[in-house]
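Researcher: Let's run the pair from yesterday's discussion. Sequence first, then tokens, for each.
Model: Starting with the first of the pair.
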Amino acid sequence: MNRKQRNTGTVPCEIIKDAWDHKKSTYKNLTDMGLANDPNKIIKIPNFKQEKIKQAKVIVNKGELENTDEEETITAVPIKKEVAEKLEKEAKAPRERRFMLPKGQVEFIAYLLDKYGHDYKAMEKDRKNYYQETWKQLRAKIKTFMGIPKQYGEYLQARGLLDKEPDEEELKKQAKALVED
């Protein structure tokens, strides 16, 4: 029972897990790493009423500000500041795009591209345009489709427009060129 009560759960982040000291409290661990335990205490939302009260006190005291009401924040330098830096670096790192269009939508876009090429006004009037999408909406969907190298590469390969195995960098260049047209 003691183990269950002391267990705070598992931390999925490896960076925090490596720097965690089980002898310290959660608050102390996060403070040592330079992280916030409660973001509401770190980034305070301005309180309109409190600001007006302070202004009124200044006026009543004729410009003399009381030092007892002001909060002096002392920022301690975190012991394990490299943890926050690693987390920041990881957050800024580029992510692999996993977005894919649904199969039905890909088939519809492929049908339109096969039949009309890049004539979006004609696509708008097609009988299979059940949702009555405008030419701008169709153009945006096609641009999105061309921005997904895997699906667009399969489309090009099926149509015989690619001579060799699809290279992701090459597909991205082709997609950008077609999107810019």
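Model: Moving on to the second of the pair.
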Amino acid sequence: MKNQHQSVEAPSLESCASNPPSNDPAKTTSDKEPIQSTQGLVKPLATFFMAFATVMTVLIVYMDNTAMKHYQFRMNLSQDFDFLSVSQDNPQLVTYIKEVFLGPAIEPHHKPIEYNAEEPSEEISFVLKLLNNKVNGFFVEAGAYNDGKTSKTEWLEKRLLWKGLLIQPDPRHFFSLRRHNRLRSQAAHACLSPMPYPKEVTLHHDHDGVRINVISTNVVEEPEWFNTRVKCFPLYSLLLAVNRTSVDFFSLESPGTELQILETIPFDEVDIKIISVHLEMDQMKMNVIKQFLKMKNYSLMKRFNDSYVYQIL
């Protein structure tokens, strides 16, 4: 029994040689799994990179198209649109202005800004002197509340019962204009056209205030993200829309286009007694305007800071 037990626990070398270990299928499969696993990742990775490259290509094309459209949009904003075939006294234009652009100079949804001035400005006092302290007159003020706060004609309206037309192209200042509750006036969110026909232009905001669009080579590179498109109408068209051809006091503040606006006025069709031109330090332009108005029988009466008061002779 003892010999038999030992032969079981210690087989002879001959038996080991005659019975070599067989190949284990499970062990062979286990050795090949890493190779097969690596080969299985190649196809998904290739698919991922192809999809990534496609998405990036589409994104680049989209960004290029978007940049081009933005550039074209900016270029469109840099150009004025002229309605050359529309005359100043076109009945359809007058009706369009009356129905779309004219309205009461009030803001019913906000508390009105109170007016507490007891005395007129020095300029308005002088204008009243020229007009013999006229009551119930009529004014046109282009650029009313350009600073968002003041108007030359508010005292005339609220103390001497004048009526008038207030013109303001800037939407921010137009809102301020209406909050002053000018019950006896009409307001137009528009600008005065520097040509004898309607225009659509872009307003630009700079350190000098608001100016209408000027074609220039660097307009596309301007840092402004928001510009206002606004309609411009000749003064004569606006006067016809409010059924007026006689004006006691015309206050003009339109940086850069003062002379052009004055040149559009058919002085043989309208009667403007006093013209006040706001003109910042530009001696050459002042002289040109003075000569032009002289040809229309106006004389420079006095200067108040940057405002030049002319009276018809």
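Researcher: Give me one sentence on the second I can quote.
Model: Residues 25-77 form the longest helix (53 residues).
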